[in-house]
Amino acid sequence: MSARDLVLGRLRAALAAPAPTPAETPRDYRPAGVVAADPDLLADRLTDYRATVHRCADADVARVVAEVLGGRRVVVPPGLPPHWLPPGVDVVVDDGLDAARIAAVDGVVTAAAVAVAETGTIVLDGAPDQGRRVVTLLPDVHVCVLRADQVVATVPDALARLDPRRPLTWISGPSATSDIELDRVEGVHGPRNLHVVLTGGPGGG
Amino acid sequence: MTETFLGMPATAPPGVGHLRGDEPFPVAARRALADAQLRRNVGHATSTIRARSAAVIGEVPDWPQLRAAARAIKTDTMARLPELLEQLETAVGRAGGTVHWAADAVEANRIVTDLVRAAGVDRVMKVKSMATQEIGLNEALADAGIEPVETDLAELIVQLGDDRPSHILVPAIHRNRAEIREIFLREMPGVDPALTDEPAALAAAARRHLRETFLSTRVAVSGANFAVAETGTLAVVESEGNGRMCLTLPETLITVMGIEKVVPTWRDLEVFLQLLPRASTGERMNPYTSMWTGVTPGDGPQAFHLVLLDNGRSAVLADPVGREALHCIRCSACLNVCPVYERTGGHAYGSVYPGPIGAVLSPQLTGVADNASLPYASSLCGACYDACPVLIDIPSILVHLRAQAPHPRGEAAAMAAAAYAMDHPALYAAAQRGARLSRLAGPRGRGLPPPLSGWTASRDLPEPPPQTFRQWWADR
Ligand code: SF4
Fold this sequence. Notes:
Chain A: Pfam families: LUD_dom (PF02589). Chain A: InterPro entries: FTHF_cligase-like_sf (IPR024185), LUD_dom (IPR003741), NagB/RpiA_transferase-like (IPR037171). Chain A: This is LUD domain-containing protein. The structure holds two protein chains of two kinds. By secondary structure, chain A is an alpha/beta fold. Helix content of chain A is about 20%, strand content about 25%. Chain A has a single domain (about 35-200), classed as NagB/RpiA/CoA transferase-like (Rossmann fold, 3-Layer(aba) Sandwich). In chain B, strand 5 (about 225-230) and strand 6 form a beta hairpin. Helix content of chain B is about 50%, strand content about 10%. By secondary structure, chain B is α/β, with parallel strands linked by helices. The complex binds iron/sulfur cluster (SF4).
């Protein structure tokens, strides 16, 4: 008998007598769509977990990105809006770079799919302006540009907007550990610095 | 065919993995109680996490509704487990993954070992995972000549220190910074001898130590926090980014998952992702959550294997009272409020699942006869029930399991204490009142007030809320 048949058989036998009655799930918690999105709350919650938040108009994204990056070398996903990048910055576009090459740059600039105000979370879904998961993992500085209309209030709001078939990375502040005497230390293996550039609204400057 | 399966389902095999201690809980607990350093470290950890957790739970206006929804989803999941697992298998397969079934730890270890060998490598990197600790995967891989590298900082500390994890969430919490520095200086190749014991310096040393491993290892092994039957999506929550490294960088990803981790729908994650971080680390959200469905061309591992592990879970499911233990999302909140765990730490439980949930889950996975002292590793104060984000009634399961336990050594003492309390009505009333008050105090209930607290730390308290002592006694 295969392990599959064995396990499923055991489980069916375990549920045979008496068979439990499937229960309805009460969903009287706050569902998607009832809480208003609040970009100020998002900024507060991100800052609380030691991300740095920059608010600016759509047209000023490149200037802010330049300030954050200084002269550092960055990788960007192929679909990043070019006008987000300051002139003269040392950029390599990820067209399937190997991991060592990505690890060798200082930073990465991406967009995001959605952000959850209540938890201070940005979510990346691998769209062309966000790129492969590895580009936001190996460089030490992650600059994420977010439009105000991508901010939602709660976790249910975010899940309702996301496609589970895409690879999803939920990011709440920089990499952190509390494994040593519960002292929070930023930056173990992921990016040690997270900068979120929150722009005014739709239309993308 | 079906009649083959009737009768008691098999439990986790003896001699494999980490579900049984070498000695009964009372013996191990007594030694732990004498270790002042351990009690200080554990006490500091539990009180700190409790405070953080209470603060962020207080921000959520619909916390009770989320807990009720979580409990209902889990009850529904258990009632439909075979069908949901088949649905998950189909969805993962459709997305380019391969599903394997493992009846027990031996089989799961063999499946993983074969997959690693087929990939032609002799080293794998690991994300912290309770399931792989449960089955003793690291030992099995080492026996097969494959080196497993733990990449979670705490697991790395445990592995380098040739030690055992003592807490579900923070496995090295029994170690302080000076001890960790010693371990790194002794065991980490190429470490800077001037390393200080600052947590930031120690974390940086781990970062340097593991970077090359992340970039050069072609196979990773992970666990899973959730798997969505409807979509085939797997989810791992973590903080450090080591999870993302293991889930993203290798060519082959092998995920070992207890069959109870499945949830029916994508939408169900909205409940658990709100409950887990706040109950667990006391964060609004953990720094990183990764979700993937099968393989994504051009992004991440191009081979994905999901190993579905029984290892005694079907035996747990067969008990209509005890099966609730399968609802556990491993947040560790019950450990942090437990007056017994706080004093003994995790090693005394002898299983990778310590604390209140360990006291009900381990004996069920192994068969109660094989872990008979663990249902007594509790004061039955009820704090674990109050803290549990999925509302598992741990005290009632403990009482239920005690009835099945074949008279462990500790029971004589418990019974003597019960008899003494019954003969001394004032003491008995105080015990009941103390327990009830601690329940009313909510998630931070701390068990009995002194002087009874010392007594309950190493011994059974015969007062099992929500039942009264007399009901419990009458039931026996
Ligand atoms: S039993 Fe409840 S409180 Fe304990 S670890 Fe599991 S989910 Fe958390």
